[in-house]
Amino acid sequence: MTTHVAPQGKDFAPVLESDVAYCKRIGYLPAAHGLTLEQNDIIQMVKVPIGAIVTDVTLMTGILGASVTADVGDGDTQDLYISAADVAAASVTHMESVGLAGVPKTYAVQDTIDVKLEGADPADNVAIALIVGYVTGLDITP
Q1: Are 26 and 130 in contact (CB under 8 A)?
Q2: pTM over 0.85
């Protein structure tokens, strides 16, 4: 058996705590939003800055209707974090992975984390909340 040391281990300079920030942002569409939602609508919920590494995503919805599902992703991959979540009833859905192939995505440009409503026409005037946790100031490039 071999023990391997990660770059932040004892043989390397540690990441300075002041250089790394963990942020949580909440995007919220209130129940009385007045929008007419349709199948395949995309709602841009949370902005992420250049260099962000998303580590946590939680989707919370009211009753959006029978056969309605939701994806959570970004401008490149609409279901990067959550795919086809059942939101026919009030629900809380946590992210399924940390990105493509299990490798966290580092954002090279500013983007938004979005909710895409699929499956059937969603109910109007239903609250949708998205909580996104991300790290900035950390380079995890392999």
Answers
A1: yes
A2: no
